[in-house]
Write a structure and sequence with these properties.
Helix content is about 15%, strand content about 35%. It is of the alpha+beta class. It has a 6-stranded mixed β-sheet.
Amino acid sequence: MTLVNQPLPTAPRLDELVAGIRIALNRRGDWQRTAQRAASALRRYLPSPEVLTGVHPGEQEDLRSQLLHVEPDGAFSIQAIVWPAGRITRIHDHVSWCVFGIIQGVLDEELFTLDSSGELLVPVGRATNATGAVNGFAPPGDIHRVANPGDHTAVTIHVYGTDLSRIGSSALRYYDLPVGP
C-alpha cells in the first residue's frame, strides 16, 4: 500500500466530520464506546469521493491511501483508501479503534477470532458494505480481512484513534495462520 504521510490541510468538506469526531472523543469511554460514537459521526458526515486530492479513484492496480487529517494532539487521523478491483488485504488487526465508511463501491469484510490454542483463525462473521455503509471496531476482537469483490474501484474513509503520520500504519499484526471451519 502506498501511504502519503504528509497530512493535508483540512478540506472544508471535512470540517464537519473533524468536529464530529472531536465531540465523540470528548465524551470519555472505552475504545468500544469511542468507536461507536465515532461511527455515528462518520455516518452523519460521510464525505464524497471529491475529498480526495492526491489519490484519484481511477482504475489502478495498487491499494493507495491519502492522509486527510491528523488531529494536532494525535488523538485521531482520517485517511482515504482507494481499493482497486479484486484487491484483498492480509488478515490483520489494529493498533487502535477504527471506523470506516464506503464512499464509492462495495467492500467485503471477513471477521475472525483466534481459537483457544492461538494457532488457528476461526471465521466469526462476514459483511458486504456498499456505498454509504459505516462500520467500526476496537481491539481486541478486530481481526479481519477486507476485499473489493467488484469490477470497479472502491473508496473508503477511515478514522483511526491514533496519529498515522507518526506510526505509518494502522495494522498491529498480520496473521498467517490457517483458517478453520
